[in-house]
Amino acid sequence: MKRTGILLFILLITIAGVSSSCKKSNFLSKGNLSFSVDTLVFDTVFTTIGSTTQQFKIYNKEKKTVNIEEIELMGGVNSPFSMNIDGDIGTTLTDIEIEGEDSLFAFIEVTLNINSQTLPMIIEDSIRFRTNGVDQYVKLAVWGQDMYYHYSNFQSGILSLEEGTWPNDKPHVIYGAAIIDSAKALNIQAGTHIYLHKNALLYNYKGTLNINGTLGNEVTFQGDRLEALYDDVPGQYYGIYFQEARPSVIDYAIIKNGTSGVHLYSKDALASGYTLTMTNTIIENNARYGVFIYSGSKVKAENCLITKNGNHALLVLEGGDFFFNHCNLLGYGTGDAATPAVGISNFYNDYTNNVTNIGSINEGKIYNSVIYGNQTSEIVFDTIPDAAITLSFDIRNCLIKRTPEATDNYYLNIFWNNNPLFDDVTNDDYLFPASSALNNNANPFFQPTPNLDIKGLPRGASPDIGAYEN
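-> structure tokens emitted (470 positions)
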């Protein structure tokens, strides 16, 4: 009986081993993996600044569970890439199973070291997947770019004070703020690309800012996320902020995807001219305002396109002076709180202190410009008269969308509610046919008309309304 018991025990062990072997054979796939991409490519990433997370999928297309014996980031701990496989993080992962006809997500990020080069670089790595003794690879590639770095942290007393001339051989990235301090001047050359991090701004405090772009070599301002996902996302940074600034210039710039493209607060009490003279500039797709004039600043703009901002293309609040000539002041914003393209007010209700601040508008001119968009009325005034302040408006030879048509005597020769017939607003094409009311209806004698339009085309004796010549 004892011998029989021993034989029975051995038999049970053998059966169990065979059963286990059969289970492994029957329930684990001998197949390999499939992937949603063979190469995961990151758009340009700045050194020291991490990318957004990209992902790809790992598929088991067999009906049985597959065991991934090893997943290895080939660059190891020295790789600029990092991987997360469905929550498992590391440079080497082992024994990960995918059930039949199921998948896993791989999440990849990249952070690059400073390389002190002006030209972009390409950095590559790969992830190895070993399944059933077979190696498969997903390649990783990133375009990297070194940059000039400007960082301010007001709470910590860290200030990036700027003056002189910024070089244009590499991009400039602003964290927090780049600050032009009192009585200082900063010159930004043609072709300079400026990228701003979340809530960052170029801050001109009582100084002078000269942005000197040229046609085809504009100075650009945008967020520091360069992935295609962010191409049309507003509110990625704050904008360009002038506080009591000395006379400054913006020529041939593109300012897009911020919160307030250009924000001007007050003016230098010793300066009699314009706080800002802006020409040949595009301000678009900002979350709130294109140009915001607050509490006494003075702006002159010619040949400018300001469009698709969340609230106003131009907002004047608590007074300030403005002269816009041959400009497109357009709505077409897609935000929930879309408002008329132009909003003019000479007061501000300070509810904290329970006071209403009132300011003058000594010069309120809009000549030869188009004010249009999706709203029923694209220009609104909300002013409070006061014996101590001045309100002076002069709007001439403009195409304006407004219902009902205004009857104020400061409007002269207005083309009310004529569709400008822009070629393709969706794709930012603001040219127009000869049948448009913009054609040949500007008046060059109110103010010397710029000889060229925003695209460098000559204006003739009968120029067109707006920034573009047909």
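The longest strand covers residues 134-145.
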